[in-house]
Amino acid sequence: MAEVTIEQLADDMFELVSKAAGQKKLKAGDLTKAMKEKYGDVPRADTKAAIKSLIDSGRCVYGYFGGSSIELPRVEGSANQ
Amino acid sequence: MADDLKTPLLDELEKGPWPSFVTDIKTLADKSEMAKDLLRQLEKSYEDKRGYWKHGGLVGVMGYGGGVIGRYSALPEEFPGVSHFHTVRVNQPSGWFYTSDALREIIDIWDEHGSGLYNMHGSTGDMVLLGTRTEELEPTFRALTEKGWDLGGSGSDLRTPSNCVGPARCENACFDTMEMAYKITHRYQDELHRPMFNYKYKIKMSGCPNDCTAAIARSDMALIGIWKDDIKVDQAEFAKYLDDGFNVQEFVVDKCPTGCIAVEGKQINIDNSNCVKCMHCINRMPHALSVGDEKGFAINLGAKAPIVEGALFASVIVPFMSIEDYKDEDSYEEFHDLLERIWEFWDEHGTSRERIGEFIERVSLATFLEGIGVEPSPKQVKAPRDNPYIFYEEYYAEEGEG
Fold it and tell me: Do B10 and B22 touch, CB atoms closer than 8 A?
């Protein structure tokens, strides 16, 4: 497995969420699987910590439309109109 | 009630002998624009035969992905009072035990920040605070946490674990549902508040096979109390039932699903090797019969309501597990280890919005058991004496020979 920091994982995940914005709602599992594909067997605790940092820093937010997703912050309610 | 509120269709729901949610909401309509517009919008839904709610979105409190369910009116200009009408789920105490002071705390908070309407309780088990605006979510959360409350689960996360009253006031409890729900809730705070699964995951605990939380039908993981040894019998108390004229033959013996009870004179005899722990005899004669001493719980997986796919009942995966000391976190190692293996396998191979029961059906029980490292057993059944998943090779050999 390639050495990767939680900050790097968070940055990579943020890039994925940004690219998918408006096209696909990514779930935590999608981000975790993408990191495993990129870096090999990344510990689950690290991907969890990376997602946590994305949310706690405000770079991403949780959304819900039938299932929970991780998204860029948007104007409230706009996606539901 | 507010003079300008005309709801002839809803008024029909106040007729009859049963409690009416319309009456309850009307009691608030004089002092709450939210309650008033809620009734108006509902009346319009009845007139037009369609709903006017928009569900979901990005509302929540900082750091949490669960606990708030976004809801907006589709007609905000017509019904501004419910333009935002978000639901807040509050993690209930184990067994739904409250003091009146605790309830007053919640009421004061919700009177200040929300509509003043509640659903006690939602089907997951949480207290459900109905109706608030987005700008009130953080202040509500702050007020709740200052008093020691927390939000419950929603979305693709671990839903708020719930349990029956268990040993707090039930002699049938085969495990400490109260303590176990508390321990699970505290250990899995991340899984509860930060949605990370394919879909929701509900854990419910019932202390005995009476299953007062209906875990077997309503939870992805149902922990149901069970015992391994014999039903305990007090023959003197049994004789009293006969002396009091209780028709044991009709109401107990004939109702036993496996016919394992016999009465001779004033003695009851139970063939425990054939008992399927249905609880009927114990429920009918609680003074004479009681659960055994070797107690624990069965772990059942896969129940769900008919959302996305059809409804499923849970199946036994682990027929018996016991915890040495429910107050000791270290005693839960075997349970936590299994739960985390289940989550990991489901997470890795499940699809979006696929519940664990649907996942097991798709990949097969054999694959699932191998994936989570549990040995197949003939005790892994959907119901006692029914639908065994496991067939012995000898059976096929005999069939082939025939």
Answer: yes
Structure confidence at residue B310 (pLDDT): 82
Would an 8 Å CB–CB cutoff place A62 in contact with chain B? Answer: yes
Q: Quick check: B196 and A63 CB within 8 A?
A: no
Average pLDDT, whole number, for chain A? 88
Cross-chain residue pair A29–B69, CB shorter than 8 Å: no
Assess if residue A1 is contained within a domain. no
User: Distances in Å between the alpha carbon of B380 and those of B204, B299, B377?
Assistant: 19, 10, 6
Per-residue pLDDT of chain A (81 residues; tens, 9 = 90+): 558 999 999 999 999 999 999 899 999 999 999 999 999 989 989 999 999 999 999 999 998 887 899 999 876 554 444
Walk me through the domains of chain B, giving residue ranges and CATH numbers.
8-146 (3.30.70.2500), 162-228+294-394 (3.30.413.10), 232-290 (3.30.70.20)
Instruction: List the domain range (segments joined by +) for residue A52.
Output: 6-80
Residue of A nearest to B200 (CA): A67
Residue A24's domain is classified under what CATH number?
1.10.10.10
Average confidence (pLDDT) per 10 residues, chain B, 402 residues: 82 93 93 94 97 85 91 96 96 95 96 95 92 96 97 95 96 98 97 94 97 95 97 98 97 95 97 95 97 97 84 93 97 97 94 93 94 91 63 60 48
- Buried-exposed string A54-78: b where 16+ CB fall within 10 A, e elsewhere: bbeeebbbbbbbebbbbbeeeeebe
A51 touches chain B (CB under 8 A): yes
Q: Are A48 and B196 in contact (CB under 8 A)?
A: yes
Tell me the C-alpha distance between B69 and B155, whole Å.
8
CA distance, residue B345 to nearest chain A CA (Å): 12
Number of domain units in chain A: 1
What are the residue ranges of helices labelled H in B129-259?
137-146, 177-187, 189-193, 215-218, 235-243, 248-251
**Short-list B77, B74, B4, B69, CA closest to B45:** B74
Quick one: pLDDT at residue B3?
61
d(CA A10, CA A29): 14
Structural element, H or E, at residue B336: helix B333-349
